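Each lists chain and fold; for instance:
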Amino acid sequence: MNNLLLFLQKYYYWFVFLILEIVSLILLFQYNSYQGSVYFTSANVMSGYIHEVQSRIASYFSLQQVNQELTQQNVHLSMELSDLRESMVVAEDSTHFAPSVKSTLAEYPTLQAVVVNITLNRKNNFLTINKGDADGVKPEMGVLGGNGLVGVVYKTTAHYSLVMPIINTSSNISCRIRNRGYFGYLRWNAEDSRYAMLEDVPRHASFKKGDLVETSGFSEMFPEGVFVGRIEEIYNSPDGLSYQLKVKLAVNFGHLRDVLVLQHEPNKELEELQEEMDNANKREEES
């Protein structure tokens, strides 16, 4: 207490000066219209600037939630677009049966996740998402982006998962040409992350550049009708028995951030049978 009194006694004239300054400013702005208008104008400008900065900061921190919501909406809009195209086909040909893509996707519980790491220039690329075992993510679950197909969960830990994207040379996903009924396998040739090859398309298939490629639904990891990309170039296979189609992928992996995990556990019996068939085909090719 004594120290405080000594401090006030030593510097009392500064406090008297500040009090007099405050009183004089109040009298100046309150009883002089010009100075008062200048004060209030400046105060409003400063207040507006502060509120603008606060708004920008709040908007920045809300971007993550907005991006996640947009990803969810993009996936469902893509499914609805597929439904519309299929409905048009049904209207043109009453004998054609096309199940609802949206209702199929509704059978897959989804989990939003964020990409925390990704490689693009390797032969076997992988990406890491911030969801894992604790969130219900398991290997062999499909992963989608806002624009289409991303890949398959490869390995998980408690809070993270490693995803094998379609730009991995080990990726092999059954796809079809939309509204054409012809199927093939989507593989990556380790060249450009913007493109993949749809291989084993039969020679009698009818299609053209610009046609859309989507998942076939043969695998339980993905529903049928998930957008993959567009046909950009058409080539003959090395043996001349089928086509190889260069597909421009819908997902830009260089800017990929928000994804959806399809939490649908695949049928193990069906997966084992498919794996056995793939191994048989590989042995036949090697021989």
Remarks:
- The CA atoms of residues 214 and 225 lie 5 Å apart.
- Residues 89-102 have pLDDT under 50 and may be disordered.
